[in-house]
Amino acid sequence: MKSISSDSYAVHFNENAFKALNKHLKGADYSKIFILVDENTHNLCLPQFMAEIEGDYVYEIIEIEAGEIHKNLETCTQVWEAMSELDADRKSLMINLGGGVITDMGGFIASCFKRGIHFINVPTTLLSMVDASVGGKTGIDLGAIKNQIGVINQPQMVLVVSQFLNTLEERQLQSGFAEMLKHGLIKEKKYWEELKLLSNFDTMDEFIYHSVQIKNEVVLQDPTEQNIRKILNFGHTLGHAIESYFLESSSHETLLHGEAIAVGMIMEAFLSKELTGLSEKELEDIKTTFLKRYKKVAFTEEDIQAILGLMKFDKKNSHGNINFVLLESIGNPVIDIKIPNDLYIKAFDYYKD
């Protein structure tokens, strides 16, 4: 499977991934290699990863606790302190072996340590393979507000090895699949139609590859998200607020990223019908597709008001305005749409009904 070249690095797949890594390590002369894992990837992925490394290098394994709740500055500080104690220097390398939390946070940790060391991302979840693999976004959460602190900084390479998906539960696979469905909605109706028919996750390589291609094409046009890259946030303005609210709520089960974004995409599709011309037929298609795959989420009036309050922290906002990505039709998004206040409640009502 041919590698995909981004701005300053490449995404390597399966049989080419470890060949590219070993070639890079052989020529780079790193003083020490730090591998960031959580307890899951330490047990399930690290042995397999290390078995593919050729050559004699100095390694240090740093393990953090799994979960979005630990994607914060406190965890970063603990990792920086560990790196300092283990004599990390500016010629060290950080390899981030894990899902989106590990790759987002690991990239941020590497970008800040001694004003920046090299890092390589090895995404091990479907979500991180099709989302975090491209674009150079690194960062952490501020309290429950997602990705408020971070920088855009590119890795040396990304390795997408689909056999790591064998370590995941069905719920995690479905979470990543929501982002793939989003790629169809914002860029390619034919891809949306193909994904709708997918009944299992046994043969995902070609779909993962195509999702990475779609995201890469968008990012290359707008690396710092000044314009067209914003389309990748369809479903995320409401979805991130929902995810943040459920993350900090003691009375609700935490939602995975894709589960929250699926809700957000249904609601933002409704807003698209109201404001940007999405047809009733395509709206119902979007709603039906997501509700077949994702458990319906219950919202009280109190929940809704709290979620709407969190939207002011969305990173696309400017000058006090909440900016949405909506759809004119499937495959045709529009950016920077402002929503009349009365439509927010109608969007929740549409989802609930």
For the largest beta-sheet, the strand count, sense and barrel status come to: 4 strands, parallel
Report the span from N to C terminus: 44 Å
Give the second-level CATH assignment, the architecture of the largest domain: Up-down Bundle
Q: How does the helix and strand content classify structurally? A: alpha/beta
| Beta-strand content bin | 15-25%
Protein name: 3-dehydroquinate synthase
InterPro entries: Dehydroquinate_synthase, DHQ_synth_AroB, DHQ_synth_fam, DHQS/DOIS_N, DHQS_C
Domain 3-dehydroquinate synthase C-terminal: 176-317
Organism: Sediminicola luteus
Please outline the helices and strands.
Elements (H helix, E strand, L loop, with lengths): L3 E2 L4 E4 L1 H14 L4 E6 H6 L1 H6 L7 E6 L8 H13 L7 E6 L1 H13 L5 E6 L2 H7 L7 E3 L2 E5 L8 E3 L9 H18 L1 H8 L8 H17 L14 H13 L8 H19 L4 H14 L7 H10 L13 E6 L2 E6 L3 H12 L1
Parallel strand pairs: 2-9, 3-4, 3-5, 5-6
Antiparallel strand pairs: 1-2, 7-8, 10-11
Helix pairs in contact: 6-7, 6-9, 7-8, 7-9, 7-11, 10-11, 10-13, 11-12, 11-14
Keywords: Cobalt, Lyase, Metal-binding, NAD, Nucleotide-binding, Zinc
Protein name: 3-dehydroquinate synthase
Enzyme class: lyase
